[in-house]
Amino acid sequence: DSHGIETHVGGHYLQGAVGDLPASDFAHIFVNDEDLHAAEQLISDYEAGKFASDQGDYNSM
What we know:
This protein is an alpha+beta fold. It contains 1 helix and 2 strands.
């Protein structure tokens, strides 16, 4: 939503049922058809590290 793409996230509450359900493929993000290309580009940018913080490693604190 913060990038101007209206979304709906579904299935994320099913994680509480692990043990009764297969432990994969829970959360799904739905976008309008006209936002599909922009959403895919945003995901690609995220996976490429374009939103990474330069604050350092928090595990060393």
